Amino acid sequence: MIDHQPTTCQNSIVSRAPASQATSSRIAGRHHLGISGRIRRNLQIDQTGRPWVLRQLPAAALASDAVIVLPAGSLIDPSVLLVETNRLDIQPERLIIDSNASVVLPRHRSEEAEEHLVERIGSTGSGTGAALRDRLSRNSKHVLAGDYPPLKPFTRPFVAGLLRDFLNHRKRVVIEGTQGFGLSLWHATAYPHATSRDTTAASFVAESGLAPQDVDDVVLVIRSFPIRVGGNSGPLENEIDWPTRAAEAGLPSNYVELTSATKRVRRVARFHPEIVRRAIAVNQPHRVVMNHLDYVDPAASTKGLGPLGWRFLTGVEKEIERRVDLIGLAPNRLVRATAHSDRPQATYASFP
Question: Could you give the percent of the chain with pLDDT greater than 90?
Answer without folding.
Answer: 56
